[in-house]
What we know:
disordered C terminus, TIM Barrel, alpha/beta
Amino acid sequence: MALEPNLRTWVATKVSHSYVADYKPFSFVDGEGVRCSLYVAGCLFKCDGCYNEAAWSFRCGQPYSRDLEDRIIADLAHPAVQGLSLLGGEPFLNTQVALSVTRRLRTEFGSERDVWAWSGYTFEQLVADSEDKQELLSMLDVLVDGTYEEGLRDLSLAHRGSTNQRVLDARASLTAGQPVTHYSHTTPSPSRS
């Protein structure tokens, strides 16, 4: 069972060392289309069965740098790339890194590239949390939310590992003030009569 977030102590400026566990350009597995995938270092959820336990440490990998950010932006400029994926670790406990790259992406590409993030937080927890988490949420197109639950594992699911996790349209969810499912190639959009 994953830990429950504590709003007072689970603060990026208190726990993050701005490290990156890994960066994978031109990935096909972390969201829709061709992605640039940034794995931030550090996670406090510590879900049983996590596929990336090595990234639980906030000092895993190397410090985030302007050189890495420049490389990510250059890779995102490739016409085949659909967007950026933020994984971890926990992006919302590494907002210094996640906001730096997403702000720059939005400045340089606007909405031409999408941003996906995977988080142990739920949408409801994020909208009630700190300003940095809310800002990062506002930069996303898709949020895959909720902790991974080993007992709810389902390998047939697209973009998530357990049935409690949701693939949400982040912008529509913020507008509606409640979770709105992201409809992709795997799930048809409901008809509007």
